[in-house]
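Researcher: Sequence of Zf-HC2 domain-containing protein follows. Predict its structure.
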Amino acid sequence: MTAHHPGEQLLRQYVRGDDVPADQLWAVEAHLESCAPCRGRLAPDPIAEQVWADLAPVLDRTPQMPPARSWLRHVSHWVSPVAGPWLAMILLVTAVAVALDQAGSVARGQISLVLLVAPVLPVLGVAASWGRAMDPAHELTAATPRAGLPLVFRRTVAVLAVVVPGLLVASQLTGASLTQWMLPCLAFTTCTLALGGLIGITRAAITLIAGWAAGIVLPTIALSRTSVALDVAATPVWAAVLAAGLIVIAVRFRTQSRSS
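Model: Prediction complete. C-alpha cells:
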C-alpha cells in the first residue's frame, strides 16, 4: 500500500477475498469509503478482470447447484431454513394436546390443554425463525439489506400463517373458545418481538414462555381450575397488552428507520 492509495496487489487481494492482515484490511476499507477513484479501480478496470480470470478455472471445477424453483425462492424470503422442523413440531404438540383433551387425561372440568398451550405455541416458531443458535445461516441473513425488523416481521407472519390455522382446528375439536386464546396468542407474539429488541428474540421467547408456565399453566393444573387470565372477562386486558406491544414495535421500527 502506497502513502496515499492501495497498491494493485493489495486491491486484487481485497477483491478476491484473500487473507489480508487486519490492519491493512481496515485501512483499505476506510480509504475506499472516501476515495471515489480507488472505488472506480475496483469496478470495470483490469483489477476486477484479473480477479475473474483467476477465479474462472475454480468456478468451472465447482459443482453447480440446480436452479431453485421460483416458489422455493419466494418461500425462502419468508421462512428460515430451520423453520420447517420447528413448525412441524408445533403442529405435533397441538395434535397431542387435542388428543389428550379428547381422552380426558389432562382436561378435567374446565381445564383444556389446548387452551393452556395455544397462546405460547407461535412464540416457539418465532424464536426458531430468528436466532443465532438455531439458524445456521443467521450471520449471512443478518448481513442482508432486508435483515432486522422487516425480516423478523416476515418470518413471524409465516409462523402465524401455519400455527394459527392449526390452533383454530384444535379449538373447534376441543370446544376451546377462540376469544380465550387468540388475543393472548397475538399478545405473546408481539411482546416477544418488542422484548426481543432489548434482550434478543430467543431470550424474550424463553422468558415469556417460562413466565406463562409458572404463572398460568402450573397453577391451573394444580387447582384444577382455568386461570382468570384465560377467562373471557380478561379479553380487554389482553387487547391492551397487544396494543402496547404493537406500539413498542412501531416506535422501535421508526427509530431504526431514522437512524439508518
